[in-house]
Amino acid sequence: KRIKELTSAVRLPIELHCHNDLGMAVACSLAGARGVVDAGQDAYINTAVNSTGERAGNADLVSIIIAIKYSSGFKNKYVLDGNVDLSKAWKIAKYASYAFGIPIPKNQVAVGENAFAHESGIHADGALKDRRNYELYDFEELGRGEPEIIETGRRITAGEYSGIKGFRNVYDKLEIRFKDDKEANDILELVRYANVHTL
After folding, report:
1. Cα separation, 29 vs 16, whole angstroms
2. 57 and 127, same domain (yes or no)
């Protein structure tokens, strides 16, 4: 509301520069940009690759783009610059990580190791049936999934919360076959037990 009032008063494009000290840099940047655009001006959001910045970092570049492109509050209502190309997101995130010596957080939006990982039975089964059950966008759109030493796209994992569909998917990829469903279920129980985390 304040940004919208300020924009209406100055009648100039507004640049937003938010830090992530409260974990709200992306949310504040988006709310501010919405106020600017709703007041009839262009908004310019300062971002950083992998949120890298002073103290707790700045608004993450990919998170901002993904939110504008896919969240219901922005999609089809606000326009991104036509030069935005998400297919380079994965490579840029990796390069910045190496260049700055700062690992990409595992749960980083779109580019983190777990961004497309599913372990719990219902999630793994749903993602295998149709990725749209749990994924808002395709990992390929971000340039992930190209051949590398490790998988960079969707990952179905076997662990404490695995269901039989996800478990069998993991073992099928390893070309491990079970003699029957009972053997598969018995081994799944062992996998679950081996992955239980205690406090």
Report:
1. 6
2. no
Q: Which positions ≥6 away from 24 have C-beta within 8 Å?
A: 18
pTM: 0.73
Q: What is the pLDDT of residues 86-130, one digit of tens each?
A: 999 999 999 999 888 999 999 999 999 888 888 787 877 887 788
Helix (H, G, I), strand (E, B) or coil at 143: coil
Asked if the structure places residue 35 within a domain, the reply is: yes
The C-alpha atoms of residue 184 and residue 104 are separated, in whole angstroms, by 35
Q: How many domains does the chain have?
A: 2
Whether 149 shows a pLDDT value over 60: the answer reads no
Whether residue 149 is contained in a domain is answered as yes
Residue 44 sits in which domain range?
1-103
List the one residue out of 117, 131, 132, 130 whose CA is nearest residue 170. Answer: 117
Is 108 a member of any domain? no
Residue 138 to residue 142: CA distance in whole angstroms = 7
pLDDT tens for 162-192 read 787 887 887 887 788 888 888 888 877 887 7
168 and 73 within one domain: no
Please check whether residue 110 lies inside any domain of the structure. Answer: no
In a shared domain, residues 42 and 85: yes
| Residue 43: C-alpha distances to residues 79, 111, 113 (Å) | 11, 25, 31
Task: State how far the Cα of 102 lies from the Cα of 145, in Å rounded to an integer.
Answer: 22
